[in-house]
Amino acid sequence: MNGRSGPSILLDIQNIDLRIEELTLTREELPEREEIKQLTERIKKLNKELKNLNQEKHSLKLDQRRINDEVSILSDKIKSKEEKLYSGKITNPKELVGINEEVISLKSKMDEKETELLELMEALDEISKNLEKKERHLRETLEEIKKNELELAQKEKEIDQEIPELKNKRNNLVKHLDTEILNEYENLRKEKGGEVVAVLKDGICSCCNMQLPSIKVDSMRDSSIFYHCDFCKRILVLPQNNHK
Ligand SMILES: [Zn+2]
Known about the structure:
This protein is mostly helical and about 240 residues long. It has 2 domains: about 25-175, Helix Hairpins, CATH 1.10.287.1700; about 180-240, no CATH class. Helices cover about 75% and strands about 5% of the residues. The protein contains 5 helices and 4 strands; from the N terminus they run H-H-H-H-E-E-H-E-E. Strand 3 (about 225-230) and strand 4 (about 235) form a beta hairpin. Helix 2 packs antiparallel against helix 3 (about 95-175). The protein is rod-shaped. The chain starts with 5 loop residues before the first helix and ends in a 7-residue tail after the last strand. The structure holds zinc ion.
């Protein structure tokens, strides 16, 4: 640090501050954070859909059981009527015709129930496929969240390591700088934000890009002095030679 001029130190401090600012912003805006938010929303939606599908499946299963019971009752009735019909015990033709008509009507009901059962099975099959698809989607989304969380943690960790290192460096630099100029620098940072130490290059301020009067430029020869830009009032320093 010995032999280094104040402006050169201040430029380093500014670079550190800009880097800290950049890192802080990067940390806040890590894309994984937004991604996790969206994936979490997707999971919420999937869980809701799964819940609805399961309810629907349950209700269809109940229907299936009820219709199966009805089929079984119908089947018993048909069996008993047919036994009666073919037992030989009934000889009255009119009664026989009556029983036969009942059997035909019961069988027709039975057909209806069986069609209903088939439709139910198809619907259940459809729901099962849908459930499977959504469950797979859910598993994939959960994995994606996990992946993003790991990446987010890793990136945060890197930033959280770099910032204290930078602050440490900054603290060491600050010791070699006049309090007065440091205060001015910090006030300017609060007021203007971003870069407040400009470098004079070819007579032009590197922050506001204005050409300074040549008479002023000619008077600026000491790279250890803090000048000011006539236009933007920022601290103006001369280009720093690294090995001075
Ligand atoms: Zn300027």
